[in-house]
Amino acid sequence: MTLLKREEWQHFVRDVDWTLSYVDDEAVYPDWLAGTGKVPRDAWLKWEEGYKVSYPEYVYTQREKESATYAVKNALQRTPTFDHLDEGWKSATKMHFGGVAQVEYTAMLAELKMARFGLNGAWRNMAVYGQLDELRHQNLTTFFGHALVEKDPQFDWTQKTYSTNDWVPIALRTLFDGFMTTSNTVDCALMLPLTFETGFTNLQFVALSADALEAGDVNFASMISSIQTDEARHSQQGVATLEILVEHDPARAQWVIDKGFWANARAFAALTGPAMDYYTPLEHRKQSYREFMEEWIVDQFIRTIEDYGLKKPWFWDEFMRSLDIWHHSLHMGLWTWRPTLWWKPKAGVSAEERDWLHEKYPNWETVYGDKWDVIIDNINANNVEATLPETLPWLCSTCHLPACNPTQGRDGSWRVRDTSLSYNGQTLHFCSMGCRQIWWKDRDNVNHQTLVDRFLAGHIQPMTVPGLLDYMGITPEVMGDDPDYEAWTRDYVGREASGLITIGGAA
Amino acid sequence: MSTTPMPEVVADEQAPELVPLNAIFWTDFVQILVPVTTANTIDEVAAAVAHHSEGRRVRALPHPKIVIHHGRRLPGHMTVAEAGIKPLDHVTVDYDLTSDLPEETAS
After folding, report:
1. How far apart are CA B35 and CA B77, in angstroms?
2. Which reaction does it catalyse (chain A) (predicted)?
3. Which residues partner with A423 through β-bridges?
4. Distance (Å) from the C-alpha of residue B3 to the closest C-alpha of chain A?
């Protein structure tokens, strides 16, 4: 028997569908899970994506990619390449492994949801490949991270992070539960494949891949490049879904995209911003985080929303101002609360690095320089203890990241201001106006307790720093610390220093 | 029908209660959790908040400190209870560089 040519059968099988007769459509695709909302059911017949991959092609391509990536890994494992990588760069990869590996599994569940409840056969078909992609990404990332455990126990958090109560994964679970776990399929397609995979993952997978090659980490670059090519395909579910939703319910499309974009912007400011502008060695930085954001996110996002007749989000001005602020503040926060991390955050504020920061961010010295100077003077006074935290940062009720975003007042000063609201007799604090607005509109959905909420509710015992670290799963062998204090403080040794606290080994 | 009014409870007569605050030392970079009690004075609140920032990230200055709550500068001798500061309220602590801010009492 002669095999049919692909073009003779592919169009027919890719969107094959059921004609239901024994049950109602609502029983098979309940609205709370499928999420058609105001969109007429028949409108989804027009759902269309460009890749149209078949299963044999999918398997062939993935097999090729797997072979290539593992060949690189096997070759490099027999070399001392990893041992010569900069400690700051290693931290960028530890953040990635811990923050991404098991999130991929959650993404697999989201794809499975779309594979079952997507409102068109072609969509469900594409989501099946998406699910296989995400399973592969989880396996690949976990396996690559696992290979490094023998070299450094912090890589053990590749597998561990997402199931601990460390404040970083709590923030990540809050974000991804909203995108992937609790969303209906239509909202999921707009937040996960569209805002997250079409936009923001480029930062981590394309931009960081370039930095990886510069830093000499071919293994990491090979791994994430292999993953990114999958993203490009299954992320097409996003625009295909948007096209139909925007026609029938533009207000909902606008809100879901706005919300998804903001949540992504907060998370990537914490995950990718410090890695690019502080951890990556100066000589290996391709661009600043802001430059990457403008090129990969801002321009592309504006093009997308204009193509579909949507408006700029209400928070656009606040977001654009944030590109000079958020990740610098979060970097200082990550460094200050370094005992709560599974990596070694490099401060990255030597004189030369500060020159670069000032060049890329003209306000940097004004907003952050004074505080880093006091920290530097404490370290040079042999008083590292003064730079360690004795309480928790206040964590935003929406994004669960520290409330540390200064804004410029009329007098020109940069200050972190109170952004709060009272609801049902409770006072809630937020890191930004955007997070407060999203909480208010989504208040019936938001239910994760921040680490501060848990601490105040008595869930963390004993209510001490060791009790907190134990609750977060932090053990002595992984507890984060600066990898090299001298590297960024030596430029300032011997200068006049006043107004330091006198604790620890203070001079 | 008349009811006998309840005797007014004076804040000072109550056992001190925990008041966790969202606080910032004005030029620092982050809001922090600072636990105080209803019996603490405003000067003690200022010291408790400053402890986490002053000389660590914010250079210490030889000026008295002030506490701002809901836009009001609070007198240093007043207690947290008298000032009406509630759990989870926000307070800002700053150096008194001007000394010309009007002092108000809690109503």
Report:
1. 18
2. propane + NADH + O2 + H(+) = propan-2-ol + NAD(+) + H2O
3. A426
4. 29
Q: Domain spans of chain A?
A: 52-273+281-336
> Hey, what amino acid is at A156?
D
Name chain A contacts of B28, Cβ cutoff 8 Å.
371, 416
Q: What are the start-end ranges of the H helices in A443-498?
A: 451-456, 465-471, 485-489
pTM of the predicted model over 0.90 = yes
Do residue A332 and residue B29 have CB atoms under 8 angstroms apart? yes
Chain B residues within an 8 Å CB radius of A501: 54-56, 60
* Long-range interactions of B57-60: CB distance < 8 A, separation 24+: B57/A336, B57/A371, B57/A374, B57/A375, B57/A387, B57/B28, B57/B29, B58/A370, B58/A371, B58/A374, B58/B25, B58/B27, B58/B28, B59/A370, B59/A373, B59/A374, B59/A498, B59/A499, B59/A500, B60/A498, B60/A499, B60/A500, B60/A501
Contacts of A402 in chain B (CB under 8 A): 30-31
Q: Taking CB atoms and an 8 Å limit, are B52 and A390 in contact across chains?
A: yes
Confidence of residue B5 (pLDDT cuts 50, 70, 90): low
Write the DSSP assignment of A351-372 as a string of letters. Answer: HHHHHHHHHH-TTHIIIIIHHH
DSSP track, B22-73: EEEETTSSS-EEEEEETT-BHHHHHHHHHTTTBTTTB---SS-EEEEETTEE
Q: pLDDT for A39-75, tens place per residue?
A: 999 999 999 988 888 888 999 999 999 999 999 988 8
**What is the DSSP secondary-structure string of A180-220?**
IISS-HHHHHIIIIIIIIIIIHHIIIIIHHHHHHHHT-HHH
CB contact under 8 A, A429 and B58: no
Chain B residue nearest residue A329, CA to CA: B29
A427 contact residues in B (CB cutoff 8 A): 22, 86-90
At A20, list the tokens. 């239901």
Tell me the three state secondary structure of residue B21. Answer: strand
Nearest residue on chain B to A500, judged by CA atoms? B55
CATH for A52-273+281-336 is 1.10.620.20
Residues belonging to chain A with any Cβ–Cβ distance to chain B shorter than 8 Å: 329, 332-333, 336, 368, 370-371, 373-375, 378, 386-387, 389-394, 402-404, 406, 415-416, 418, 420, 426-427, 429, 452, 455-456, 498-502
Contact B58 A403 (CB under 8 A): no
In this complex, do A499 and B55 lie within 8 Å of one another by their Cβ atoms? yes
- Give the C-alpha separation, A324 to A175, whole Å: 22
Q: Which of A391, A415, A426 lies at the smallest CB-CB distance from B52?
A: A391
CA nearest to B57 within chain A: A371
| Per-residue pLDDT at B4 | 47
Question: What whole-number distance in Å separates Cα of residue A446 and Cα of residue A439?
Answer: 7
The CA distance from A501 to A483, in Å, is 23
Q: Of A103-117, A455-469, B1-15, B54-68, which range is least confident? A: B1-15
- pLDDT single digits (tens) A145-191: 999 999 999 999 999 999 999 999 999 999 999 999 999 999 999 99
Counted across chains A and B, CB pairs separated by less than 8 A come out at 102
Percent of residues, chain A, with pLDDT higher than 70: 99
Mean pLDDT of chain A: 93
**What pLDDT, on a 0 to 100 scale, did the predictor assign at position A52?**
83
